[in-house]
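Following up on my earlier thread - several people asked me to post the actual chain instead of describing it. Fair enough. Here it is, all 347 residues.
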Amino acid sequence: MKLPNGYGSIQKLNGNRRKPYIVRKTVGYDEDGKQIRKIIGYFETRTLALQELALYNENPYDIDVKTITVEKLHDKWQEEKYPKISIKTRQVYNMCWNYCQDIKDEPFVNIKINHLQAIVDSMGNKWSSKKAFKIMWHQLYDYAIKNDMNVRKYSEYIDIGKKTTKLERIPFEEDEIDKMWQNVDRMDFIDTILILIYTGMRVGELMDIKIENVHLEEKYMIGGSKTEAGKDRVIPFHDRIIPLIKKYYNKATESNCEYLITNSLGTKMKYSNYRREKWDKMMEQLEFNPKHKPHDTRHTFSTRMDRTPANKLCTKRIMGHASTDITDKVYTHKDIEDLLEAVNYLK
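Reply from S.P.:
Thanks for posting it. Predicted structure:
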């Protein structure tokens, strides 16, 4: 049976071959007008060859499975992946890619576990970087396999070792919290620390709060990120921090800024600026332990709530922790009342 012009060709090769049928497709012409033909693959029967050629004509492969380099495949994966992820995640992947410069020109199909393990071993004690590197290569292999590349997923065998360093969390003591309340009207942004301590929010979550999601009369706001349980959760206001929330709400409204926490220009405060320009200076001025990190406020909230009679499920919901008892993200008026009651056990 003769195939239509431009459809591709199937030829049976001579000799005793396990897959004697070769499928080719003209993809262009050289300077002399000679056909440039791409090999689609080799097959055991003509029927299988016809099926593969039909599939190719319906959805042509966008990568040359045998010759595409690591860099070319990475670029194609990046084009598909990056529009779907955050800038911060892109930066992590870019850091991982910097470690791949010695193998970027190698055909992707030639990469073996020894190539990847050597790169990981060169990272020293950077466990988080090793983990991110492994995740990136998982995704590169998934992209390759999705595009019909017959490759073994060597990323599964990368040994990144065990995480040996544990982040030290230092909860704020009650006398430190008292000292912050004593100075709340004397130091800029010290109230943000108190808001964090009385809500259990991450700093980034507080910086992302928009005033449209702040409900002053009902004493809660909607926010949260990172996990499915933590996204768009109800964050109740302890009675002591309501004036602090109101102050920032009014300031943002007056400066026509959509975010609750704003910088001196009336725009959204970035975490890096908050940490460098506000947090570190406040720790120094208050003469607190310089090892205190912004995330310690969340740990402080959890520790203090554990000492109260508050319902443990309410604490989990406030912090955005997953629980088998939480079946949906719908909050009734009674739910919010329960959260307000729980958080107000704090002194």
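The chain has 13 helices and six strands. That should answer part of your original question.
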